[in-house]
């Protein structure tokens, strides 16, 4: 069992946004295991995966001084030992934490020093009332579900996406992922600032120390980042497309 982290003061988290790209130069930044995983994915899923991993490697390279393609990531699950766990940087001092997510035409990478973080993004939402009610019952705590049912039907898809991203961010930060039922967590309502109310079964010694921050969004997109063991979180959102473009420019790829 991991030790309970000490609560720190304010921590800065960089959040990088990008659009999925099929540029072959990005794939060249990945390691062999990532190439194998990408090959099993369909076109758009592959583009999102490759873009997310390439962006992560570029961000980490700037922090560590190691070439993007030489970074090694470990995805061993702490629960079962399989390779689907939260990625971790191999060979570092453990101070850098990161999380990646993608949905629709958005890719997001969050990076911070000295605190575990998680990020999630959802683009769009279901439109069928029955489908939404079924999904709501599976992810919302009883009080949240009551709030959800009081909403006008037109507001439910976005509200559900807000609840989802807030909870997913916490569970990514703790490393639990979807092994813990989302309905066992409770967060604030979508009309309130993002915050955790209760942790349920989610590795409570760490989840109880989560600080949440909703990210910039539009009418189709919602996103949230969570950090553990900090008093407050400062978030700086950056243009990942520009960083990716630097890796695909002729000078970066060796073309004249």
Could you explain how this protein is built, in words?
The chain has 9 helices and 11 strands. With 256 residues, the chain is of the alpha+beta class. The strands form 4 sheets. Strands 4-5-1-11 form a 4-stranded mixed β-sheet. Strands 6-10-9 form a 3-stranded antiparallel β-sheet. The chain has a two-stranded antiparallel sheet with strand order 2-3. Strand 4 and strand 5 form a beta hairpin. It is globular. The N and C termini lie far apart (53 Å). The relative contact order is 0.19. Residues 1-5 and 252-256 have low confidence and may be disordered.
Topology:
Elements: E1 8-18, H1 24-27, H2 32-39, H3 43-64, E2 73-74, E3 88-89, E4 96-103, E5 106-113, E6 117-123, H4 129-139, H5 142-150, H6 156-174, E7 186-187, E8 196-198, H7 204-207, E9 210-214, E10 221-228, E11 230-239, H8 240-248, H9 250-253
Parallel strand pairs: 1-11
Antiparallel strand pairs: 1-5, 2-3, 4-5, 6-10, 7-8, 9-10
Helix pairs in contact: 2-3, 3-8
Order of helices and strands: EHHHEEEEEHHHEEHEEEHH
The class by helix and strand makeup works out as alpha+beta
Uncertain runs: 1-5, 252-256
Oligomer: single chain
Brief rundown of the structure:
This protein has 256 residues and is an alpha+beta fold. The protein has nine helices and eleven strands.
Descriptors for this entry?
256 residues, alpha+beta, 9 helices, 26% strand, globular, disordered N terminus
């Amino acid at each position: 069992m991991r030790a309970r982290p000490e609560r720190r003061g304010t921590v800065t988290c960089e959040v990088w946004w990008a659009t999925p790209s099929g540029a072959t130069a990005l794939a060249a930044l990945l390691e062999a295991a990532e190439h194998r995983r990408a090959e099993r994915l369909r076109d758009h899923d592959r583009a999102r995966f490759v873009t997310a991993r390439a962006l992560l490697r570029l961000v980490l390279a700037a922090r560590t001084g190691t070439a993007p393609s030489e970074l090694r990531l470990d995805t061993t699950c702490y629960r079962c030992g399989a390779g689907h766990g939260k990625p971790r940087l191999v060979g570092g001092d453990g101070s850098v934490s990161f999380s990646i997510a993608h949905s629709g035409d958005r890719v997001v990478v969050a990076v911070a020093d000295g605190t575990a973080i998680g990020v999630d993004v959802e683009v769009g939402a279901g439109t069928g009332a029955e489908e939404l009610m079924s999904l709501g019952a599976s992810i919302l705590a009883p009080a949240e579900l009551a709030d959800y049912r009081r909403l006008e039907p037109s507001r439910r898809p976005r509200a559900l996406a807000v609840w989802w991203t807030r909870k997913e961010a916490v569970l990514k930060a703790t490393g639990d992922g979807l092994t813990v039922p989302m309905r066992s967590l409770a967060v604030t309502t979508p009309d309130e600032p993002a915050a955790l109310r209760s942790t349920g079964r989610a590795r409570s010694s760490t989840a109880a120390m989560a600080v949440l921050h909703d990210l910039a969004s539009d009418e189709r997109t919602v996103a949230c980042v969570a950090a553990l063991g900090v008093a407050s979180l400062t978030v700086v959102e950056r243009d990942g497309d520009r960083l990716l473009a630097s890796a695909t420019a002729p000078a970066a790829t060796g073309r004249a």
